[in-house]
Design goal:
Elements lengths: L1 H13 L7 E2 L7 E4 L2 E4 L5 E2 L12 E3 L4 E3 L11 H18 L9 H12 L5 H17 L13 E9 L16 E4 L3 H10 L5 E8 L5 E6 L5 E12 H4 L5
Antiparallel strand pairs: 1-4, 2-3, 5-6, 7-11, 8-10, 9-10, 9-11
Length: 246
């Protein structure tokens, strides 16, 4: 969410009515989240000036660990230097820390492609935004789940009940520090996640939703502490319920 919002902001800056705007003091502390959108808190160090040049050799974009040769345009300006400077700063301050860690495994290669392409400035801001929107579409639609074995058949579903809330085993990246609370596209994906965790014996799909509209599923190591809840369904592994009376 943070990276996508940042890319949308940089897309606007690259195509603003004033021309391409560069953030000269590009630091995480210069941004804040407001209603799920990233905002710049200080525009004092923003500029529309692009580096003047006489030849391509005048247009090297330097960073502490990398340098990028750019072209000198016919009007004597380094082509796209403001856009590329913003984008590489987004890569080194945000993408490298946030992109690799919280996506479903099937989407991680696509995010790695974005990471590599922006880290080498192979993508401009237009291509970067399109790549992010593709990942978002796959994430929200559940298309990344195609060709998976159906695992929900290995679970018993009890409607009208839920498990007692409380501290349980932890997982990453959980939305709760008390247990394992993850976003899922469907109960089928939740069953696959539960199967992949040795501690998991049951799960419920909660009424909570993430910023993309996906529900949150609570994964638990127990299932015997059930309480009535007309809106809930608890899913229990067949193996966990063997020998027990439901």
């Amino acid at each position: 969410q943070i990276c996508l919002s940042l890319v949308k902001l940089l897309f606007y800056l690259a195509h603003s009515p004033l021309g391409s705007i560069v953030l000269l003091d590009f630091q995480p502390r210069q941004f804040v989240m407001v209603d799920g959108n990233l905002k710049v808190t200080d525009m004092d160090d923003a500029s529309t000036e692009e580096l003047s040049c006489k030849e391509d050799n005048d247009c090297t974009l330097d960073f502490p660990t990398k340098s990028f040769p750019l072209k000198c345009s016919v009007v004597g300006k380094c082509e796209g230097i403001n856009e590329k400077k913003n984008l590489f700063n987004a890569y080194r301050y945000f993408f490298t820390y946030l992109l690799p860690h919280s996506a479903p495994p099937a989407l991680q290669p696509l995010l790695s492609d974005i990471l590599n392409a922006t880290g080498d400035l192979q993508y401009g801001i237009n291509e970067t935004l399109r790549a992010f929107e593709k990942v978002l579409h796959l994430y929200k639609s559940g298309l990344y789940l195609q060709k998976r074995p159906l695992l929900l058949k290995d679970y018993i579903s009890l409607r009208g009940f839920r498990t007692v809330e409380g501290e349980d085993y932890k997982c990453w990246p959980s939305y709760s520090h008390l247990g394992c609370l993850l976003s899922v596209h469907s109960a089928e994906e939740a069953a696959a996640i539960c199967n992949s965790q040795s501690q998991c014996q049951s799960f419920i799909i909660t009424q909570q939703r993430t910023w993309t509209g996906r529900p949150l599923a609570s994964f638990q190591s127990r299932w015997t502490d059930l309480i009535p809840d007309t809106d809930a369904v608890v899913y229990i592994k067949h193996s966990a319920s063997s020998g027990e009376r439901l």
